[in-house]
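Reviewers of the previous submission asked for a worked example of the structure-prediction workflow described in the proposal, so we include one complete record here. The input consisted solely of the amino acid sequence. No template or homolog information was supplied to the procedure at any stage.
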Amino acid sequence: MRLSGLSSGLDIDQMMKDLMKAERMPVNKLEKKKTELGWKMDQYREMNLKLRALHTSMFDSIMRASSMQRRSVLSSNEAIITATASSNVGNTSFTINEVKQLATSTTAIGGSISKTNGQSDSVTSKTLLKDIATNDMEWIVGKRTREAVQVDENHSIKLKEPLADGVKHILIQGQAYEIVSDQAGELGRNQVAMDDSGRLTFHEDVTLSSQVQVEYIAGVEDEEKAQRFTFNSLSVMANENGDYNTTSFYFSENDSIQSVVTTMNQSKANVTAFFDEHQKTFVLTSKSTGTFNRDEKELTFGGSLFTSTFGLHEVKNGQNAQFTLNGLETERRENIFSVSGMTITLKDTTNQAITLTASTDVDSIYKTITSFVNEYNELIDFMNGKVNERYYRDYDPLTDEERDSLSEAEAKRWDERAQSGLLRNDSLLQTSLNQLRSSLYKPISTGGAFTHLSQIGITTTRDYADGGKLEINEDKLRQAIENDPEAIFTLFNGNQETEGLAQSMRRDLQRSMSSIARRAGGSEGFHEAHQFTIGQQTRTIDQQLSNFERRLEQKEARYWRQFTAMERAMQMANQQSESLFNLLYN
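From that input alone, the workflow returned the following structure tokens.
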């Protein structure tokens, strides 16, 4: 029990606060030191982010041949033919004397779709299949079932539900397999054998994963829950041998025409489908251009929905692009093709000779180099700013009590000054700056035309206050790019025998990032507090704070015991005095 000035009349609570405030001064210093270390760690990590940004940017810009040896292609008529060139294409040119025809896609156009009552005007994309089905439509009654099924060691699967009557196909991973009995003879690759128990076994040469996605029509006992389904297939010619890639579908009588369009567009059939509401016609177009076989239809259909209801009989095969290149009559299956590293795009037919000339893309390479120089200058500016930032000795981090006594604006200004100059004259940053400068200023003996940045128009500024920032002589750099872009690329990236400027600089950046990470953590594998210097210092301060807090609690308890003893003694003295007074005057 604590007695707080009842007998002495003293403000013991306030006296205790003042005493403990004095006792807490070493704790406040430690807390301020911990806060300062946290600020310094944040600034180090911010520096590492800047270093890493340049490290990554260099790899994606000046160290890539595709950026530093880029070629542009000038077409004499870009409305008809355009082209791009890879970095390994020399200053070459091609002449396309004639474009006889462009490559087109194979297209199947159906007939006019009518409802079963003979009306075609009311057919829209929302019309259901059951309303346009022809009399010869083959229906299977049941329910559509999709499930994931495990494949056992015998190359077989077991469906969860029995198949509906009349089912002749199941879809495995979107591919149709014809169902045959075990006694049907030798099993084909596109067939699956079903035994009396309903187990399905595949041909031994069919490759299956341990689990497959299966779609099939299962039987149902409740006829009200049953629907009618139609099985249809689309085959697209895949090569010059006349082989087809076949994709199959189960469509419900309650599916709309638009549902069929969406399903086919999302399938692996590599076609584009649409329904034209003006002509009431279903149209399919291959996403690939050109033709493999002019004598055979490159799109074939199976199932009464495609062949009868949609009437997809008229198939117009695609055609190859035919043109004359440097006097040679040739053709391609696509309108975009490559010749000796130049990618040519045909846009229209022409009898006019069109020249494609590849040359160094000076603007693009210049932009890549200037972008690197700007990023380098921003980093140098940021590092110099931290190293030379003013340090305010009289501005320590604020305690909670000190912060409460200031306005928000005053506290903000105080924090700005308290955080200023924490990395001033930091030896780690000074070393990193010197390494970066030396990486770019040293000559590179690559055997090429350029051995130093100054030879391509990149030098340090004359202003000493810039701290080693770079400046570009645009005319000199553009002339160097135009004369020998490969030599510039070698200057930055070296060769098999010599390291280039960019490689040397990235190595120094990596070394600096590792050194900073060992001090401030956050990257390079230094994530736990015990792994980096500031983290260890913070842990030490935490231990000291814990010990101080424990001693402060003990000291506060001792002060309270002393004040309480004083109060009790004074209370007893007061009681004795009152007793004596009563004896003398009674």
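The first strand starts at residue 71 and ends at 75. We consider this example representative of the routine output the project will generate in years two and three.
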